[in-house]
Design goal:
It is an enzyme of class 5 (isomerase). Keywords: ATP-binding, Hydrolase, Nucleotide-binding. InterPro entries: DEAD/DEAH_box_helicase_dom (IPR011545), Helicase_ATP-bd (IPR014001), Helicase_C-like (IPR001650), P-loop_NTPase (IPR027417). This is DNA 3'-5' helicase. The chain has 537 residues and is α/β, with parallel strands linked by helices. It folds into 3 domains: 231 residues, P-loop containing nucleotide triphosphate hydrolases (Rossmann fold); 141 residues, 3-Layer(aba) Sandwich (Rossmann fold); 120 residues, no CATH class. Helices cover 34% and strands 16% of the residues. It has an 8-stranded mixed beta sheet with strand order 10-11-9-12-13-8-18-19, with helices on both faces. The chain has a 7-stranded parallel beta sheet with strand order 3-4-2-5-6-1-7. A 3-stranded antiparallel beta sheet has the order 15-14-17. It starts with 9 loop residues before the first helix and ends in a 19-residue tail after the last strand. 39% of the residues are buried.
């Protein structure tokens, strides 16, 4: 017989609140209203997309439904007649093994059994003669399974999803860090594009499909992610809250070149004693930063405790131990990491996040900066850049011209007009994405994320043509970004600009709200008799 009530009814809301207070007493304030609204929708089998700030409580969306259903299964007489499962189980798609291990640990603290389905766990099960597919399918051992998209192709998962016990008890299919469907699915990890096909093709239609992230941009990115997961029109519920972090300040510093072997700008991090994560673009960058900081510390075994490297070549156990030490060991201060430590990993004592070079996307930047200040203390988020200015040759965006970009140059062949148009389009996108970070319009508690991001995407820029090429690199200037200035003003301070640069040219630029233009040197005094070809090196 069909249940008497739905979870979205008042009885359902009350039951969720009662169970959370009983099973999770450490949450003294219970759930936020927005969390409760999403949880009851998940329990009713509705599809949801949730975008809220890092540390905003997205993990409750795959933990609490299981906890509630476990309580109902154990004490059915204490609660109203609501849809339930005898052996509730959920699937969480995770991009990295480190994130999966972190989720397993968080769920363990909530008395929810979880498994990280990875190469290591599968290999260990085969060695010991265990049949993981049968154990997962019978729903008697674990309540949450964390798995990467690549493993969904295995025959074991066809067996799991064909198991009648599993199909009767599956509660949800969740994609954590869903923005990576678009960012990584194109080339880096194509299997991200097939997560939706797995959910729609292998799970019952009554199962809730979830997409969680702090950085899903509105418009085309949101539409692309939803369509990949089989969400169209009004068939899903979207909750978008501001991803503003009021306790985090973003600082952009133009210092020594980030491609070298010395990073003196990082010494202040060591001297401060504050726990920090330094995000690098490659494992090679991680090693260079580690070696430099290692040499700067006094000799002794304490250096091994104070500095740690976190990347995908290390084992799951090693990376998990680094996160534990960063959280618990007062001596362990700095973790130097790749993108593997950028998505949703939660280390509460970390106060500072520094990026060596500019991340490829705005979403990645927000994810990296979201690792800092998870306990509400004042924190800092820094981006160290090598700033290079190329003024176009002969005319704006000519086929031989260069563009203004952080750490990237765009050069096209002379006769290739198609390449010229591609240059303009590509450069325009990159500028809107990256220079949009310089907008100093404050983000307030009442700001709405869709409006903020939409306005970021519409910032326009103006470039001026010159008869020569001027390169501006490693100038030693510092840009201080204050995101909490008054609404009717902007603050962009340029400090320590070398006098030789002031005498050579004038940098004019600024933003008037979200619709401003970034103007670059309407007049530039240079020696036009210089060998132009030598300047293109």
């Amino acid at each position: 017989m069909a249940p008497q009530f739905r979870w979205q009814s008042p009885k359902g809301h009350q039951t969720v609140s009662t169970v959370v207070k009983k099973r999770i007493p450490q949450w003294s304030n219970g759930l936020y209203p927005a969390q409760t609204q999403l949880i009851v929708r998940i329990l009713d089998g509705e599809d949801i997309v949730c975008c809220m700030a890092t540390g905003g409580g997205k993990s409750t969306l795959f933990a609490v439904p299981i906890i509630v259903l476990l309580e109902l299964a154990q004490n059915p007489d204490l609660y109203p007649d609501l849809p339930s499962r005898a052996l509730p189980i959920g699937i969480v798609i995770t991009p990295t093994k480190g994130l999966a291990a972190n989720i397993v640990l968080e769920l363990k603290n909530l008395n929810v059994s979880a498994l990280s389905y990875s190469h290591e766990t599968v290999t260990e099960a085969r060695k010991t003669g265990r049949n993981l597919a049968r154990e997962i399918g019978d729903c008697g051992t674990w309540n949450v399974i964390c798995v990467d998209p690549e493993h969904l192709r295995d025959k074991a998962w066809r067996d799991i999803t064909a198991n009648n016990i599993f199909r009767a008890n599956i509660v949800y299919g969740c994609t954590d860090e869903a923005h990576l469907i678009r960012d990584w699915g194109a080339e880096f990890r194509p299997q991200f594009r097939h997560i939706g096909s797995f959910f729609r093709g292998r799970l019952p239609s009554c199962v809730s499909i979830m997409a969680l992230s702090a950085t899903i941009l509105p418009g085309a990115p949101l539409k692309s992610i939803c369509s990949s997961l089989g969400m169209f029109g009004d068939d899903y519920h979207l909750l978008r809250l501001s991803n503003e972090r009021l306790n985090t300040q973003l600082i952009l510093e133009l210092e020594n070149g980030v491609g070298g072997k010395i990073f003196p700008q990082l010494l202040a991090i060591l001297n401060s004693g504050r726990k920090a994560i330094i995000h690098c673009r490659t494992i090679d960058d991680v090693l260079r930063v580690f070696l430099y900081l290692w040499k700067c510390l006094p000799p002794g075994p304490h250096r091994l405790r104070r500095l740690k490297m976190y990347h995908s070549l290390r084992s799951i156990e090693d990376n998990a131990d680094i996160l534990r030490l960063l959280a618990e060991d007062p001596v362990c201060q700095v973790a130097i990491a790749t993108v593997a430590l950028a998505n949703r990993l939660n280390v509460k004592p970390v106060l500072d996040s520094i990026s060596i070079g500019c991340p490829e996307t705005l979403e990645q930047l927000l994810q990296e900066k979201g690792r800092a200040g998870r306990v509400g203390m004042a924190s800092g988020a820094g981006v160290l850049l090598t700033f290079t200015l190329y003024c176009c040759d002969s005319s704006c965006f000519s086929p031989t011209g260069f563009g203004l970009i952080f750490g990237e140059n765009y050069r096209q062949d002379r006769e290739d007009s198609l390449a010229q148009r591609h240059l303009v389009s590509n450069l325009s996108y990159e500028l809107k994405l990256r220079l949009g970070l310089f907008s100093t319009t404050p983000l307030t508690a009442t700001s709405r994320c869709p409006e903020i991001i939409a306005k970021l995407a519409t910032v326009s820029f103006k470039f001026f043509a010159f008869k020569t090429i001027v390169k501006w690199s490693n100038i030693g200037a510092k840009f201080l970004f204050n995101s909490y200035s008054s609404p009717d003003s902007t603050r962009l301070k340029i400090l320590d600009l070398k006098s030789v640069l002031i005498n050579s040219f004038c940098l004019l630029g600024g933003f008037a709200g979200w619709s401003g233009e970034f103007g670059l040197v309407p007049q530039l005094q240079v020696d036009l008799n210089r060998d132009r070809e030598s300047q293109r090196v």
